[in-house]
Amino acid sequence: MKRKKTQKKTETPMSSDTPLYMISVAAELAGMHPQTLRVYEQKGLVNPGRSSGNTRMYSQDDIERLNLIAELTREGINLAGVMRILDLMERQLNMDQEIEAMMKKMRRLENEAHELRMQRKIYDLVPYEEQDPKEIFCALLGKKLGE
Question: Whole-model pTM above 0.70?
């Protein structure tokens, strides 16, 4: 018997912003009426993706956003206040990401500065007359110039 070669299916993990749910399913998951989702889209509170047939498709991120909107409105916050809160949350997230990127860059620059200070200290310790300081440094590290 010959066996058919089966290809392994490689599953691509879905991200939380992948549009998955039609409006009826999204409304049920969020505990809202589909018309409420349409109103929230019209007011700019949520921005679902669209299928090739122009059907609204909601992601898990959209569902979480709808749940947050529902929680805020239950607490008595009107839609203008909800919009302001969502905007501030998004701005905070963007600033946090910028800070993280700056911190990463700062650590890289601190490491480079430390390396340059160490090289300077080593250059200062080793007497040289006509020999290139880089050659001396490489010799101390046991490397050849240019490695």
Answer: no
